[in-house]
Write a structure and sequence with these properties.
Length: 276
């Protein structure tokens, strides 16, 4: 369901594109154009040309889109719906030649962000199922510390992708059981994981149910090292949810330093909720 969105705020105009996958996805197609006239004649003429160009281009695009909609048939819609995720993220080739084929996007209450399940085909011909995540920040060092002690999933790829402007993080798929349970041994594993991070002067930052997964043997793994980093260097996001929906540790505030004590309090809250 592709469409164009025209936004006019004050003296600024922006054109965005929008499509519907398993939710609405939008993206700006141009920088905001300020239509405030300049004091000089040259600036004014240039502005008129730019505004005219934007609207003439948008008119042509809308005509093309209208023709495409007229050619849509029920059979075409059915064939598209029966295919796998389309369109998928354009990033599908890792530096070592591994090819990613996206299967579905994970959209649930635990993880509403840009996370996908994909199959990874290596140059040698072997296939492995994996998670693919796109995020603003990611602490590869903290992830590898816990991966070494089997407290984080295998990290296949972690790199800032210039064509996207985000980190692409690929990890081995963890298949959770239908009724994941945290045992006393699993609780000790989480305590040890946080202890290892702190001993190496790292903080995790976002220790709650959404970032703990269990394998088929009910062994826990920490995921999503987006907020992780060196002690006294990383801060909570400006847009952290402080509306009361999440039981944060005392002292957690937007843009404040993430402390080791916050990790320990969040871990204790998590374990208490599970009565471990």
């Amino acid at each position: 369901m592709p469409t164009f969105l025209l936004s006019i705020v004050g003296t600024k105009i922006t054109v965005c594109g929008a499509i519907y996958l398993d939710g609405v996805v939008t993206q700006p197609l141009m920088r905001s154009l300020d239509v405030t006239p300049g004091a000089d004649d040259i600036r004014y003429k240039s502005l008129v040309r730019n505004v005219a160009h934007v609207f003439m281009t948008l008119r042509k695009c809308m005509d093309t889109l209208a023709r495409d909609y007229l050619n849509i048939t029920p059979n075409l819609v059915a064939s598209v719906n029966n295919r796998s995720l389309r369109p998928a993220p354009h990033f599908d080739l890792l530096p070592d030649g591994t090819h990613l084929t996206y299967q579905k996007r994970i959209r649930d209450s635990r993880n509403p962000r840009a996370v996908f399940i994909a199959s990874a085909l290596s140059p040698q011909g072997s296939t492995e199922m994996c998670f693919v995540k796109f995020t603003d920040d990611y602490c590869e060092e903290a992830h590898k510390l816990l991966e070494a002690m089997s407290a984080a999933p295998k990290l296949i790829h972690c790199k800032l992708e210039p064509s996207i402007g985000l980190y692409c993080v690929v990890t081995k798929l963890i298949r959770e059981p239908e009724d994941p349970r945290l045992s006393a041994e699993g609780a000790d594993k989480l305590r040890n994981a946080i202890s290892v991070l702190h001993e190496n002067e790292f903080v995790f930052g976002d220790l709650r149910e959404a970032n703990v997964m269990f394998d088929e043997n009910h062994s826990p793994y920490l995921i999503d090292f987006d907020w992780s980093g060196k002690v006294k260097e990383v801060r909570y996001p400006f847009n952290i949810n402080l509306a009361g929906e999440i039981d944060w540790a005392e002292g957690v505030k937007a843009n404040e330093i993430i402390e080791k004590e916050h990790d320990l309090m969040m871990l204790q809250k998590y374990l208490c909720r599970l009565s471990v």
